[in-house]
Amino acid sequence: MDAAQLIPTPDILQVPWGWFQVLLTVTFFLHLVVMNILLGCSIITFFRHATGKSTGINKAISKKLPLTVAFAINFGVAPLLFLQVIYGNFMYASSVLMAIYWLSIFAILIFSYYGTYVYSMNYDKIADYRTVLTGFIAGTLLAVAFIITNNFSLMTNIAAWPEYFNNPEGTMLNLSDPSMYPRFLHSVLGAIAVGGLAIALFYDFKKRKGEEAAEEGIAIGMNWFAGATMLNFGVGSWYWGSLPEYVRSLGGDGSAFFLIFIVLGIITAVFSLIYGMRHEVRPAVYLLLTSLFCMTLVREFVRRLTLAPWFKTSDLEVVPQYSPLIVFLITFAGGLALIYYMIRLVLTDREARS
Amino acid sequence: MNYPVWLLDTFGGGTLIALIAVVHVYVSHFAVGGGLFLVFTEMKGLREESPAILEYTRKHARFFLLLTMVFGGLTGVAIWFTIALLSPAGTSSLIHTFVFAWAAEWVFFLGEIVALLLYYYNFNKISSRSHLILGWLYFFCAWMSLFIINGVIDYMLTPGEWINNQNFWSGFFNPSFWPALFFRTFLALMIAGLFGFLTSVNIKDEEMRHRMVRYCGLWLMIPLVLLLASALWYKAALPLPQQEMIFAKSPEMKPFLTGFIFISPLLFVGGLLMAAFRPQAVTRSVAIVLFLLGFLYMGCFEFMREGGRRPYIIYDYMYSTSILKADLPEVQKKGVLQSARWVKNREITPENRMAAGEELNMILCLPCHSTGGPLNDILPIARRFTPQGMEAFLLGIGNANPYMPPFAGNAEEAAVLAEYLTTSLVPGFMPVEPEIQPLFVPPPSSIFC
């Protein structure tokens, strides 16, 4: 069977695809940062509890985890929406193929989310169960990451789709794809690195306020960051090597940008690591964020090039309707202003009372 | 036609979406009405200078945060995932038509999270005025989410002029938009009262408990009356075909309609009982019963609304089989197996009749029917027919049964699907030709022997 005949016909867009691509890239970057902090910090706290290092750092992380889940989920909604607009015909198909796993994400996340609240609200009462609880939180989040990685690789692995005819119950996974495991591992190590850097940044704020003990927090965070980043250079190379030859050959539209962003992403990651090892937190953060943004773009290029034999976003039909976009942009700006106002309201009020 | 079909068997026929959707809708309406409830209750506490009421508000806010933000937020994502799995074509159409409405809703969702977290974590830490502003802003964001989602949901039931002009605003501000918005707003306020009962019956001080239970009773009963008035408006705003589908033509709607009519006074009486009785054992039990009744009430309404757009998923545009109304004649001419993408048996041969029938069943029947499940089970229906009877039924579908879409296949596919449904899908039912024993006729010679 020619797998290409299974690719569904895409729907019509209201504005050119570039708008959605920009919105997808920006919102995914935001999601990536918060989600990495969540997953990375969960794994780090689990290892710290498991190795008997239940210090104040773990408690400080416990207080922030529920908020991080809330924003990780919220920031995940927008890129998923814009992804469906441009690549929905691929994503809906792959989601049906692995429907049971895909749908289980929400149930697993409910347990993870409540787990973070139990951990946060009862930290002092559950000294004996912290390892188990953080293991549960990290484990469930890793399961979600594994399922999502499967779907986003299956949506571009068209050759695997005909397996549906032997398994229409929605229990397929993309395990035969050689890029699946390195991609997953690359993401997890990236999350640990970002989680470590987030811890270091948190204690950097405390250090600037004059807290003596903050240096230890910075050191711990930076060690996790440096270790995970060094490993990730190896896993990243493995991931690159597992991509199809026609993707690695950097042919096709925009390949010059693809190359530039890969090189820039690696260089900024290297410099971030150097600053990290010197415990210079802020430069390391700026450089890592630049690297993450470059890698977000690289990820988009890899998807475009992988699907290039069958699909080009520029071929998507457009019947223009700009007024909904304008209303959304106004709402977006208004929403940001509202959030700024609310935070300012609380801060000024607290300041006045103190 | 365009996408693979997830073989769900027991959980098909709407069971899965019903399980997730009704739970989510109940909690998400609480997320809207409960926001206003928090603000009003806090204002009441401040006005009456009652630390007990303010403490109740704080505790209720924690319950509200844990339920609406975690469970409500994630079941909302789950609905999105579920509809995309059950009807990818319908979901894709909704996403592409209303992408910027969804995007704006995401902004309000973000505003809700920020406002609620700031509201909850700043009890007694900032001035009452600032705290109330946060509460009001939360309610504004939550209600705006409702405003946007209401537009999209009711577009599916009454797309109005969108059918002709495909204009975003025609679809969004569709004929049932405003009555549905009022209806859902009152429903949200009413549900806030029902959830308020659950927390207020646990207040330790008897006098305070009784005061707050009565207060919650007002939140139940006043919106309920307004809700019933807006329900009449909602009904009147529905075009005749959708009204007939809910109130006359679809037999499956009757229990939900009856449920909705009977539960309305029960909820009102329940509110009065809560106001009248003081013993905690009684109020706790009644609060739970009312909470469950509210859940059923919501379920009845949602089933009716969903049923009203039958046999379409987007009224007058896309059938529940995900076939566009405009494409139907072409599909009927070419045949489903030639038109669908995710099909293995494109040609029907004597060897693959059952396999082809199974594929036709997946594409045409399973979007609405379960196989052995609690909702819309296809097995008892299939058992009632012979292959010939089923074939005739399939070819006449949509006329005699207006809640079902017209059969989208050609005559040969009708025969194959009928054969599959009545001889292969239904276990143990295999109509066979009666075995005829040849009558023994003795040779003429023996007669005369």
Brief description of this entry?
The complex is a heterodimer of chains A (354) and B (449). Chain A has helices at residues 17-50, 56-97, 99-121, 130-154, 180-208, 214-242, 245-248, 255-277, 281-307, 323-353. By secondary structure, chain A is mostly helical.
Model description:
The complex is a heterodimer of chains A (354) and B (449). Chain A is mainly α and 354 residues long. Helices cover 75% and strands 0% of the residues of chain A. Chain A contains ten helices and no strands. Chain A has helices at residues 17-50, 56-97, 99-121, 130-154, 180-208, 214-242, 245-248, 255-277, 281-307, 323-353. In chain A, α1 (17-50) runs antiparallel to α4 (130-154) and α3 (99-121) packs antiparallel against α4. The radius of gyration of chain A is 22 Å and the shape is globular. With 449 residues, chain B is mostly helical. Chain B contains 19 helices and two strands. In chain B, strands 1-2 form a two-stranded antiparallel ribbon. Chain B is elongated and about 80 Å long. Chains A and B meet through α2, α3 and α10 of A and α2, α3, α4 and α5 of B.
The overall strand count of chain B is 2
N- to C-terminal distance of chain A: 72 Å
The major pleated sheet of chain B works out as: 2 strands, antiparallel
What is the radius of gyration of chain B? 27 Å
Count, helices of chain A? 10
Structural class of chain B: mainly alpha
Beta content of chain B? under 5%
- Tell me about the biggest sheet of chain A? none
Secondary structure blueprint with pairings:
The complex is a heterodimer of chains A (354) and B (449).
Chain A: H1 17-50, H2 56-97, H3 99-121, H4 130-154, H5 180-208, H6 214-242, H7 245-248, H8 255-277, H9 281-307, H10 323-353
Helix pairs in contact in A: 1-2, 1-4, 1-5, 1-9, 2-3, 3-4, 4-5, 5-6, 5-9, 6-8, 8-9
Chain B: H1 15-47, H2 51-86, H3 88-97, H4 99-121, H5 128-157, H6 162-165, H7 168-172, H8 177-200, H9 206-237, H10 240-249, H11 254-276, H12 280-308, E1 312-314, E2 318-319, H13 328-334, H14 336-339, H15 353-365, H16 379-383, H17 387-396, H18 411-425, H19 444-447
